[in-house]
Predict the 3D structure of the following.
Amino acid sequence: MDRKEIVAAAEAYWDDHRDAIVADIAKLVEIPSTEDLAAAAPGAPYGPGPAAALDAALEIAEGMGMTVTNCEGHIGFADLAGKTEKQLGIIGHVDVVPAGPGWSFEPFKVTEKDGYLMGRGCLDDKGPSVVALHAVKCLSDLDVERPYAMRFIFGANEETGMADVTWYLEKYESPAFLFTPDADFPVCYGEKGGYDGCITSAPIADPVILDISGGVVTNAVPGEAWAVVRADASALPGAERITVADAGDGTARIDAAGVNAHAAWPERGISAIMLLANY
């Protein structure tokens, strides 16, 4: 088969298997696969959610006739044999960031609207991973020589540090070529750096700020933040995206409403923590 015939076969595969592809995406989206180190256990080093999503992804791949391996819950992969052992790799991930506030649809359920799929992970990265996996399945069904083995790697810790990839590279060789359906196509050659800091303070006598909280994870622009302060709520000024309410006993609660965004595109969001700090 030439390239034009392969593309035509892929388009036909999509038409014939669209419902199955959406169902596989929904199967993964329904699993809240956020990191929970407090609940980590053997076979689930990043918590039960990522482990369950990894099991589900490998089950889908195994149902396609691929040979699957679960690496103690750290990461998993599905192999399709070729003429040689040299590998062409695809890597996606099944973990997600917490749903957070502001959803118009149920976050852990796929809803289709106007040709789009809504649900946590539909875009990052369960949906693209499932589509890429079906592309491998499509190729395996064609009369096309595969000079190299294909390995589909499913990560389970991409959102919070990529400890899964570190684990993999300590025990397996990297594929000769690797593609990820988790960035702007066709090439992602690097990522912006991330910084996690922890700021602590000694006890403050007679504090004004009694409690404060904001955000859900470090790799997302926080959409909500709040503080309880020692103040008369009626004396505090109004401000855009700020709500002030009497919290009793001479205290006030200040809520900041920002706009959630992925940390990869911070310009798309408004940090509620910054709103609160500025206020």
Remarks:
- Residues 70 and 76 are 4 Å apart (CA to CA).
- DSSP finds five helices and 13 strands in the chain.
- The domain at 209-278 is CATH 3.30.70.360 (Alpha-Beta Plaits).
- The two ends are 64 Å apart (CA to CA).
